[in-house]
Design a protein that fits this description.
By secondary structure, the chain is of the alpha/beta class. It has one domain (8-119): Response regulator (Rossmann fold), CATH 3.40.50. 46% of the residues lie in helices and 20% in strands. It has a five-stranded parallel sheet with strand order 2-1-3-4-5, with helices on both faces. The model has no long low-confidence stretch (mean pLDDT 92).
Length: 124
């Protein structure tokens, strides 16, 4: 965890409203947030910029969150990942996310407090 600068979070979700809402909450909580709309774009960003945490939706067009998590883990085995999902079969998807590298999962919809507590727990 960084001590001299804000924690950097990569927020990945294909739903613009959810992505922007979470980004605003995290920015107000003091985090530096980078946004991505899909798994492929998130991987391009992740390969060139270090992050303390990745929050990713699981079901997205193109490269989904599971595929992105696997690749991110191969690039940085220590990266902290929070998987989120509101899709059908969300429980199964969140369970699968734990197998491919998510350190924590949240089922949509979740409260702001629940999200912030989960992030604080992951970042220490």
């Amino acid at each position: 965890m960084r001590t001299t600068e804000k924690n950097k979070i990569l927020m990945v979700d294909d739903d613009e409203a959810i992505r922007d809402c979470i980004a605003e909450l995290l920015s107000m909580a003091g985090y530096t947030v980078t946004l991505s709309s899909d798994g492929s774009e998130s991987l391009r960003i992740f390969e060139i910029e270090p992050f303390d945490l990745v929050i990713t939706d699981i079901m997205m067009p193109g490269t989904d969150g599971l595929g992105a998590m696997i690749k991110m883990r191969s690039i940085d085995p220590e990266i902290k990942i929070l998987a989120i999902s509101g899709a059908d079969m969300k429980e199964e998807l969140l369970h699968a996310a734990g197998f491919v590298g998510a350190m924590s999962t949240l089922q949509k919809p979740f409260s702001n407090d629940e999200l912030l507590k989960t992030i604080a727990g992951l970042l220490g």
